[in-house]
Amino acid sequence: MSEAASFPVPQEWDVEPDAAAIASARRLVVDVARFWRVPLSDDALRDVELCTSELLANAMEHTKARCKVMVRWTGTHLRVEVADTSLRLPNPDSAQDTVTGGGGLILVAGLSHSWGWHPAGVGKVVWFEIAADQLVTGDARLSVLVHAAQARPDPVARTV
């Protein structure tokens, strides 16, 4: 008998370039994690949903094309990857990095255990991981949310 650990097979699927597809994809990520019985609290799964939404919104904003989502469990972290065809590098300091008006990568950086990107084919993969025992709460969570909100440009200033 093998002593090697056995983990669920990573799940991946394509997401059409439609804002409505973001909600379905983020729910599917959480459904996969629950099916695998990943030890994440409901609050941590809400962070997974939020981070997934931000990565998908960025991919759709910058490519207007189908992207791919992959979910895997490492034994200690839930990892979500979004592959797109954009050559634009992710920049959390960019005030306009998502369809929702900016601050998305600041949220991802603040709520996840780690995040990053790597080149892939004609584009890149942006990913984040949430640890089974990690949850950003209290003042730390408030600080992340305020920082992300401050990074969003003033909608009135954009129309002037």
Strand content: 15-25%
Low-pLDDT runs of 5+ residues are 97-101, 154-160
What is the tally of helical segments?
5
Strands of the widest sheet, in order across it, are: 1-2-3-5-4
Taking the alpha carbons of the first and last residues, their distance comes to 69 Å
The structural class is alpha+beta
* Quaternary structure state of the chains depicted: single chain
Q: How much is the average pLDDT?
A: 81
Q: Can you describe what's shown?
A:
This protein is α+β, with helices and mostly antiparallel strands and 160 residues long. It has helices at 19-35, 42-63, 104-111, 138-151, 155-159, and strands spanning 11-15, 67-73, 77-84, 114-120, 123-131. The protein is globular and about 35 Å long. A five-stranded antiparallel sheet has the order 1-2-3-5-4. The protein contains five helices and five strands, in the order E-H-H-E-E-H-E-E-H-H. Helices cover 41% and strands 22% of the residues.
Topology:
Blueprint: E1 11-15, H1 19-35, H2 42-63, E2 67-73, E3 77-84, H3 104-111, E4 114-120, E5 123-131, H4 138-151, H5 155-159
